[in-house]
Amino acid sequence: MFVRKQLLSCALLFSLASLAAPAPVAADTIAVIGTGQVASALGPEFAAQGHEIIYGSRKPSRGEVKKLVARTGHGASATTPADAAKDADIVVLAVPGMLVEQITKSLGDLSGKIIIDPTNPLQRGDDGLFEFGVETSNAELIQAITPHAYVVKAFNTLNWRTMIDPGTSGGPVSIPLVGDNDEAKAVVASLVEGMDLEAIDLGPLRHAHFVEGMLILWINNRNVGNQPFDYYLRKVPKD
Ligand SMILES: NC(=O)c1ccc[n+]([C@@H]2O[C@H](COP(=O)([O-])OP(=O)(O)OC[C@H]3O[C@@H](n4cnc5c(N)ncnc54)[C@H](OP(=O)(O)O)[C@@H]3O)[C@@H](O)[C@H]2O)c1
Questions:
Q1: Pick from 195, 184, 190, 198: which is nearest to 142 by CA?
Q2: Ligand 1: distance of its center to the CA of 90 in Å?
Q3: How far is the CA of 156 from the centre of ligand 1 (A)?
Q4: Which residues line ligand 1 (CB under 6 A)?
Q5: Whose Cα sits closest to atom 19 in ligand 1?
Q6: Residue located nearest, by CA, to atom 9 of ligand 1
């Protein structure tokens, strides 16, 4: 498998120096699990970068899924979630945040694959605001289920519309990335940059709790009717 080979061959290099710039991504097979808003945003964007997209859907023969496959193009297809993941180098979990554990477990052996996790563990509290629905983070739960995969948290802090149309925001739109493997983060950073978004490495996977918390603040702020905001982290020069 391309990604696993690339990760192994680069292991020595990355033990010596961390990547300053994203490595170029060869044409990969990307399983996008789900066919909702985030899947429909990311699938066509990744396909436009030359990757083959396989959607994993509970009902892959549905009319809307066929339309999404046709819109995605570049050899895209749809099948069941487990079959989509089996043949993929990269798996995107574009699924409901509180079902992440259950869905990850249903996908079979994900060892050696990069897993992109855009989910948020949102659970409605008694006062109507969203609460953090897990103890650690969804990204860490996924990594615990599949310890030999490379989990990268990405795309969870912004609305799907901004992901595909960052030009309307008035500046670079940043995508925080966290994960424990530099090469996997570089591969995801390359996908991010290919969408005219800016990847910002925020460190190890254990920081996912805080990155997922950013979305809780964002969505609750909207729900109480305060002045809406978006998160655009800005890079500054190193000291
Ligand atoms: N919407 C946004 O703007 C946005 C932005 C950033 C992050 N996120 C996060 O990204 C994740 C996906 O969000 P989304 O808005 O794309 O959700 P969505 O529109 O509800 O889509 C979720 C997809 O998951 C699949 N799925 C698999 N098992 C399911 C089940 N038991 N019940 C319902 N759906 C199931 C469905 O695809 P099939 O029916 O084909 O199986 C469904 O289309 C969430 O965790 C969300 O917090 C959302």
A1: 184
A2: 18
A3: 12
A4: 34-39, 57-58, 65, 94-97, 99, 103, 118-120, 122, 155-156, 159-160
A5: 36
A6: 119
CA of 157 to the centre of ligand 1 (A): 15
Which residues contact residue 138 at a Cβ distance below 8 angstroms, ignoring those fewer than 6 apart?
97, 100, 117, 119, 120, 121, 208, 212
Q: What is the pLDDT of residues 37-61, one digit of tens each?
A: 999 999 999 999 999 999 999 999 9
Please name the residue that has the structure tokens 């809307």: 64
Buried b (16+ CB within 10 A) or exposed e, 160-191: bebbeebeeeeeebbbbbbbbbbbbbbbbbbb
CA-derived radius of gyration, the chain: 17
Q: How far is the CA of 34 from the centre of ligand 1 (A)?
A: 6
* Residue 55 CA, closest ligand 1 atom number: 40
All domains in the chain, ordered by first residue: 27-223 (3.40.50.720)
The CA 14 to ligand 1 mean position distance, Å, reads 34
CA 218, CA 164: separation in Å to the nearest integer?
A: 19
Per-residue model confidence as pLDDT tens digits over 61-89 = 999 999 999 999 999 999 999 999 998 99
220-239: average pLDDT: 91
Terminal C-alpha separation, the chain: 40
Cα angle value 221/99/232 (rounded, 5°): 35
Q: Is pTM beyond 0.85 here?
A: yes
Asked if residues 200 and 173 have their Cβ atoms less than 8 Å apart, the reply is no
H helices present in the chain, as ranges: 2-16, 37-48, 63-72, 81-86, 100-105, 138-145, 160-164, 182-193, 208-223
